[in-house]
Amino acid sequence: MRYQITGMHIDIGDALQTHVKDELGAALQKYSQRPTDANVVFSKSAHEFVCETTVHLSTGLTAAAKAHATEIYGAFDACAEKLDKQLRRYKRRLKDHHRDRAVPVELSGASSYILASDLDSGDAEPETLQPIIVAEMETKIPSLTVGEAVMQMELAGAPVLVFRNEKKDGVNVVYRREDGNIGWIDP
């Protein structure tokens, strides 16, 4: 497994890197015997340390967790615990997913834009209806079944997921509704 352990404006020592590799490796070994890569980013927010972990499974699914604590080791341990809980919750589905899928998830490229918010203008009418593009990025759209898309959304902790439906070969959306249920848009 490949690890990328970084600190944003924080010096990450060898002891912390060893701790992250050991703990994360042990947690992931229980749920996935296939090679994966993990990205762990430490940062500081006021008096707390923040740990953000993203694990890419070999089948294309991604699990993510984020935690805060007053100590850096505590932040990682809380983050690893959240990740372990997510993977434990989906262990059966992940194992079924490995069996059903012989090849990794296919990813398609797409453009992603960040638009300027109209909150700065107050109550004034905008001069134009064309939004101002703040940033443009490349994103990937996975080719999944609806069940896999819901699982991916839950694992990543995302409120919405755009995916290409393998069964109907069209772009679909799953999202978390305000009532706690999952919505699915199939145009």
TrEMBL record:
InterPro entries cross-referenced by the UniProt entry: HPF/YfiA_ribosome-assoc (IPR050574), HPF_long/plastid (IPR034694), RHF-like (IPR036567), RHF/RaiA (IPR003489), Ribosom_S30AE_C (IPR032528), Ribosom_S30AE_C_sf (IPR038416)
Major location category of this protein: cytoplasm
SUPFAM superfamilies xref list: Ribosome binding protein Y (YfiA homologue)
CDD domains: RaiA
Location in the cell: Cytoplasm
Sigma 54 modulation/S30EA ribosomal protein C-terminal domain span: 130-183
GO molecular function: ribosomal small subunit binding
Record keywords: Cytoplasm, Translation regulation
An annotated GO BP: negative regulation of translational elongation
A cellular component annotation (GO) from this entry: cytosolic small ribosomal subunit
Function of the molecule: Required for dimerization of active 70S ribosomes into 100S ribosomes in stationary phase; 100S ribosomes are translationally inactive and sometimes present during exponential growth.
Assembly and oligomerization: Associates exclusively with 100S ribosomes, which are dimers of 70S ribosomes. Interacts with 100S ribosomes.
NCBIfam families in the cross-refs: yfiA (TIGR00741)
Protein name: Ribosome hibernation promoting factor
Gene for this chain: yvyD
